[in-house]
Amino acid sequence: MSSVTQAHPRVLEPLMLVVLIVVSIIGSVVGIQLIVTLGISANTSIIGALIAIVISRIPVSLLKRFRSVHRQNLVQTAISSATFGAANSLFIPIGVPFAMGRPELIMPMLIGATLAMFVDGLMLYRMFDSKVFPASGTWPAGVATAESIIAGDQGGKKAMMLGLGVLGGVLGSMAGIPMSALGVAFIGNMWALTMFGVGLLSRGYATPLLGVDINKLFIPHGFMIGAGIVALVQVTVLVLKSRSKNAAAEESFTVSDRRFVNVLGQGFVAYLLVALIAALLAGLTTHMTLPMLLGFLLFAAFAAYIHELIVGIAAMHSGWFPAFAVALITLVVGILVGFPPTALAILVGLSASTGPAFADMGYDLKTGYILRGEGKDRELELEGRRQQLIAGMIGFAVSATCVWLVHDNFFARNLFPPVDKVYAATIAAGVSKDIAMNLLIWAIPGALLQWIGGTKRQLGVLMATGLLINAPAAGWAVLAGLLVRFFIVRKYKEAGQTACSTMAAGFIAGDALFSFFKPIFSGNFISK
After folding, report:
1. pLDDT: which is higher, 520 or 218
2. 39-59 average pLDDT score
3. What is 4-50 written as a DSSP string?
4. Residue 319: closest CA among 144, 98, 65
């Protein structure tokens, strides 16, 4: 009988390690170029899976081992970790001091953001398959990648249906339809996604219909503050209540409530240390009194903590995460507290560096969870997760190296993420009392909606997520998808939901492929 370590491929196999490093370099380059040219990063998980499938078809006996869906899963884990790591977790944070004209803060920010990124990914790994972040959660991008790998492995009717979905995703994206949003509506929580769609439409049509720019008034940000605080309270209550019950109730989860609480505590300490290191390297001790420095460290650690919680919940339910906007919320509150500009740059950078790696690790582990039989073999599942964690950490390490090597070249050409201009301008302008009042007022309905929906529906967080994103077309796509799904499932029951899930995976995969290749064909990739 083979052992678990033999049953699942190992990341540190020489050939596997080489492949993971190569695809991580590709993912890092793609992520950096997209974030500075388009202001977004693409989900490269499916690209990684396709690369592994192509490698497995090369007529060399050594490469045939990549026909294993588990090896393909490790490849997609590494490339997606590198892409989101390089773009969202690292290049955005170091772009803040550059946009502010403070180049001396770039290296301290890179070191702090790199440490925060590793903590971020590790936190999700240790929280995955808990009551708060269950493996059975939607995690849409993870489902799409898993379905793509399974279809490539099995072929047949499932592959044909997925292929049609991919084709529809590409064509729809070419026509300007947000196919990822449509796909998510086919598989996500209907209550949560209804609020998400309403939020998207409210943001998109508030200005043309009412003449009010709710973003400039910081209404969505206040809404998210209220919803986020209640979400934190709900998570705390959920865990405390569960710990008082019989431990047998936790058998369906691989992460117990006790371990979840321990991870939260250890994560807070880790973020506190990261904030301290970044503060010392940035010389904040010369700009702040000791009480203010201590307050800054506590606030930075708590902000990172809240940021990954909100981003993780939004990503799990909707497939979208408002990382840019939630980091801006942290910045605005920091300005209201009275932190100096240097501290604010470090604060928003550290906040921006957490969340994306957390969400992406959730997607990757969801893919693995499906490919490994959805937890039926507990030992295989746990070993598979460990190998994915190592693959993800390799992706993070490669992304940090790539960003360190190329950032001077990009900054010399004045190329940096567009969102950093917003952060720098906000720090320079400050926040008025009117904005502070709007944050307070709109936190109330956000808190109430989140409280009404509870932890399973996450109505407040998803409504706020929609309000923070200016994409009304995505709102229509979500609501239309929910309506179509309702009638299909009502008529065909379980078979209808299975068909919806497969088509959803195709739509999301097609949208991801289009997003990846569009800059190449449109000439937006940097050639210098």
Report:
1. 218
2. 79
3. HHHHS--TTSHHHHHHHHHHHHHHHHHHHHHHHHTS-----HHHHHH
4. 144
pLDDT, residue 245, reads: 56
Handedness of CA 42, 45, 46, 48 (dihedral sign): positive
Give the other-Cβ count within 10 Å of 488's Cβ: 17
Q: List Cβ neighbours of 296 (8 Å cut-off, separation of 6 or more).
A: 275, 279, 284, 288, 339, 343, 347
CA distance 204 to 472: 5
Q: Is the pLDDT of residue 508 over 60?
A: yes
Burial tier of 58 (Cβ tally within 10 Å: 0-12, 13-18, 19+): exposed
Any alpha helices (H) in 413-432, and if so which ranges? 419-429
CA dist., res. 367 & res. 316, Å (int): 13
Mean pLDDT to the nearest integer, 105-116:
95
Q: What share of the chain is helix, strand, coil (3-state, %, to 5)?
A: 80, 0, 20
Closest CA to 142 of 75, 54, 45, 8: 45
Q: Dump pLDDT digits (tens) for 177-236.
A: 888 888 888 887 888 889 999 999 999 999 999 998 998 888 988 898 888 888 888 887
**pTM, full prediction:** 0.84
Question: b/e for 128-158, b at 16 or more Cβ within 10 A?
Answer: bbbbbbbbebbbbbbbbbbbbbbbbbeeeee
- For residue range 353-368, what is the model confidence (pLDDT) as tens digits? 988 899 999 999 999 9
End-to-end, the C-alpha distance of the chain in Å comes to 55
- With contact defined as beta carbons under 8 Å apart, do 95 and 52 qualify? no
Closest CA to 362 of 192, 123, 184, 180: 123
In the chain, what's the furthest Cα-to-Cα distance?
69
Amino acid identity for residue 456 in this structure? K
- In terms of Cβ atoms closer than 10 Å to its own Cβ (0-12, 13-18, 19+), residue 518 is middle
Cα separation, 102 vs 183, in Å, equals: 42
pLDDT at 525: 47
Contacts of 301 (CB under 8 A, 6+ apart): 268, 271, 272, 274, 275
- Per residue in 268-305, pLDDT (tens digit) is 999 999 999 999 999 888 878 899 999 999 999 998 88
For the beta carbon of residue 269, count every other beta carbon within 10 angstroms: 10
